[in-house]
Amino acid sequence: MSTPLLRIKDLKKYFPIKVGLLGKVVGYVKAVDGVSFDIDLGEVVSIVGESGSGKTTIAKCILLLERLTYGKILYNGEDVTLLRAEKLREYRRSIQAVFQNPFLSLDPRMNVFDILAEPVKINMKLSREELYEYISSLLNMVGLDRSFLDKYPHELSGGQAQRVAIARAISLKPRLIILDEPTSALDVSVQAQILNLLADLKNELNLSYLLITHDLSIVKYISDRIIVVYLGRIMEEGLSEEILDKPLHPYTQTLFSAIPDPYTRSSRERIILRGEPPSPINPPPGCRFHTRCPYVMEVCKRQEPDEIRFSSTHKVYCWLYVEK
Amino acid sequence: MTRQKILQVENLSIDYVVLDGIIKAVRNVSFTIDEGEVVCLVGESGSGKTTVGLAIAGALPENAVIREGKIIFRGRDFLSNRLKDKSTSEDRIMIIFQDPVATLNPLFRVGEIISDVIKHHLKITNPGEIREKALEFLKAVELPDPERVFNSYPHELSGGMLQRVVIAIALSINPRLLIADEPTTMLDVTLQAQILDLLINLKKKLGVSILFITHNLGVAAEIGDRIIVMYGGEIFEEARSEELLYNPLHPYTRGLLECIPKTHIKYSKLKSIPGMIFDLMNPPKGCTFVDRCTEAMEICRNVKPQLVEFLKDHRVACHLYRLEER
Amino acid sequence: MKRFKHQKIILSLIIKKPLSLISLLIVLAFIVLGVTAPFIVPYPEDAWGLTYNVEKRFLPPSVEHPLGTDALGRDLFSRVLLGSSFSLIIAVGVIGLALLIGIPVGVVAGYYGGRVGTLLMRITDMFLAFPPLLLAIVLAATLGRGLLNLIIALAISWWPWYARLVYVQTNTVKNMPYIDAAKIAGLSNIKIMGKHVIPNALTPTMVQAALDMGSAILEAAGLSFIGVGVKPPTPEWGLLVSEGWQSINYAWWIAFFPGLAILTTVVGFNLLADALRESADPRLRRTILMRLGVKQ
Known about the structure:
CATH topology of chain A: Rossmann fold
Largest interface: A-B, 42 and 44 residues
Number of strands of chain C: 0
CATH superfamily of chain C: MetI-like
CATH class of chain A: Alpha Beta
Structural class of chain C: mainly alpha
Number of helices of chain C: 13
Oligomer: heterotrimer
Radius of gyration of chain C: 23 Å
Number of domains of chain C: 1
Distance between the termini of chain A: 29 Å
Number of helices of chain A: 11
Number of strands of chain A: 12
Largest sheet of chain C: none
C-alpha cells in the first residue's frame, strides 16, 4: 500500500473563548473534533457540510493558517508540523488554495500581473522576460489572454476574477489545491465554466483537489470521494457513486433532499429538518446529529456511534446501521 | 381563473446615474401578479431583478431614476401617487432582503423592533396587546420559542432564525404583497429548505402574494407559481413554472436550465453558457443575448425581439418565435 | 486607474454642493499662499519681524498697508501672509509626525495582535486618557517655546488617534482572504504588512489626517496665544492675535485679521471634512425599518 499524498489523522481544532481583561479561557469552540481522511495523488476529495461544520477550519489547518490543537497532518508520510526550512517551503508550495469570493481573495490594489507575479517571484528565480512569459502562459491555461495583465480586480467579472485566482493557485506547480466554495459566489451560467476549467486543469497537471462546499449538487461533477461533516465530525464517507446512489446517513439524505432541483419537485420525498444546528461550543452528547435527526433513537442521545463499513470505501457513523 | 390582479407593472424603465454614465438597469419591463400568487423573478447579476423589486417596494437608492412606466398596486398607480404623498401608497407592500443581520438594528431587542412596527401600523397602544400580537407573529413564522426570541438581541440568534424574525416583522403590517429579495441565498441548504417551506405555508394561510427574487432557478421552481426570466434589464421569458421548466423556449432559459446541477441525471460535464453579460451602459441594438447565443441569426443583431405571447400564458422575446410562423 | 476614479468621485461630490466648493477653494488658496508667501510678501523684513518702525505704529488699514500696522510699526498684511506658511508647516509637521508614530504602532498591534498588540494598544490608551489639548500644553511648556517643540508637543498628543484608527483598519484587512492568499504564496509577515496590509488599511487614515489639518492649525494657534507656542517675532497667527489683544480697544485690526485668517482656514478645512465624510457613505441603508419610520 502506497503512502497517500496527504493523511489527516484525528485532527482537532479548538478555539478558546476568552473573557475579561486577562483573557481567562471559559470554554472552547470545538470547530473540528477528531477528523481523519486521506487524499491520494490525482484524487478529488470533497468535504460537504453546512456552516459550523468545521470544513473551512480543516482547510486552514492543512494550509498552516491555523495551528492544530491535536492530531497530525502527514505529507508524503512526514508530519508537516515538524517540517523546517526547505522542506516547509516545499510543502507550502505544494498546497495552494482558491477561495470563495475572488474579489476578496485578490488584493484590490494590485493588477493581474502583480497578483500572479507575487508568489512566483518568491519561489522561483526567473528573469523579467521569463516571468512575463510564464505569467502569460498561466493566463492562457485558465482561458484568459495577455490583455488582462494590467487590469485590476474590480475591472473583471466574477468568473474572470476567479480564473485569475486559479492561475495564482497553479503558478507554483502544486500537488494539491484546496478549493473553498470556488463557485458559490458566481452566477449559475459561469459556475459551470469554472468547474469545467478545474476539471480540465486537474487532468492536465495531475493535481489533487480538496473541494470544500455546502452544495452537494456540484460535488458529483468533479469529485472521486465525498466526506460529509457535521459539527466537526465525519458523518459519512465514501466514493462519489456510493454516496450519491445510496446515501446512508440521515444527515446526508437531508442534504440531498434540500437541494432545490426543478425536475424532482414533485417526485422527491423532501425531508425538512426542524430547528437549527446546535452550537459547537457544547456539542450534543452521543451522535451530534441526534437533535435534528428524524430517526433519532434513545441510544443516539447517549453514545456516539462507531464506524460502520459498508464497503472498503464506504463508511457511515450512525446507530441505524449497527444491528446489520 | 379570474383572480384579481394585485400588481401590474407596465413598461417600467429604470436608470442608475453613476459617474461614468448611465446604467440602463431595467428596460421596458411589464408583468402582473395575481392575488395569492407567487411570482419568481429569476436572473443573474446585472439582470435588473433586484431593481424591479426595490422600485415596487419604493426603496430605490438615491441615484436611481424611474424613466417611465407604471406600477399599479390594487388599482392605483402609485408611481404618480408617490410624488404627491410618500407615506401612504406602499403600506401593504413589504420587502425582505438577503442579509437579515443588516436589516435589524443590533441595539434593540427583537421584541422592541417588532412592537414598534406593530404600534406604528396597527395603531395599537396597549403594551400587553402589542406584546400578544408580536408573539403571535413570531409564532406564525414557526420560531420554536417565541418568548425567548422576543427578549433576544439580533446577535443572539442564528441566520435562519433572524430571517424568520424579519419575515415576522414584514407580516406584522399585514401586507398584501411580500417582496423577497434572495432571502435564502445566505443560508445553508437545510435552512433554505425551511424558509421556502415557511413562505409557501404563509402564502396558503394568509393569501399574501409574493414576488420572489432569486438567481437560482431551482429555488424558483420550488416556490413559484409563475417564473419570469430576466437578462440585462429585460424580460426574456415568462410562463407558469412547469411550463417553463419542461418547455423552455428562449435559448437563454434553456442554457440556464442546463447549467443547474441535476440530482437525478448523471453528467460527466456540467454545461455552461459561454461568454459574459454585455456592457449595461451600452446595450447592443438588437437582442442583448446575441453574443452568447448558439442560435443567433442575422436579424438578432439588428432588431430587438418583442415579448410576445407565443403559446398560451407563455411569453418569450426571441426571433426564433414569431407569431406569424406559429 | 482606481485612484483616478476615486478622485473623480470626490471632486464631483464637492462640486455638487456650493459650500463644499467654497471650502475647497479656501483650502487650495491656503496651501498656495503657504508655499509662496515667503517669496511674495510686500515687506519681507516686517514679515519676518527683523525691523521695527516707531513712526508707523498702529496705522489703520490703508492702500499702503491693507491690513494696517502693528504695535511695532510692521506691515500686518505681510505678517499675516507669512503666517500662512508657518501654519502650513505646523499642520504638515504635526500630522506627518503623528502619522509616523501612529501608523507603525497601529499596524504592528493590529497585525500581530496577542500580547504585543495588547501592550501597544494599552500604551496608546494611556495617551488617549489625557485630554489632548491639555497634554499638548503641558508638553509644550516643558519642552520650551519654539516651532519644532510646538510641533513635537502637538504630534505626541495626536498620534494615539491615528494608532487607533490604523489598528481598527488593520484588524479588518488582516482577515481578508487576500492576506491568507499572500501567506499561502509564501510571503513573510513583514512583506505582507508592507505590500498588502498598509496600502489597504491606510486610505481612511490618510483622509482623516488631511482633514485634521484645520484642527492642528487651531490648536497650534491656541498654544501660541497662551504663550507656550512659537517665540516672537515669528508671525504665527495665534501669536499675532495674542500680540494684538492688548491694543484691541484702539487698534482692533491687529488681532482681528490674524483671527479672521485662523477662522477662515479652520472653517474651510472643517467644511471640506464634512463634505468628504458625506461622500464616503452615500449608500442608502436598505432597511425595512427605516422605511417604516421606526427608531434606528
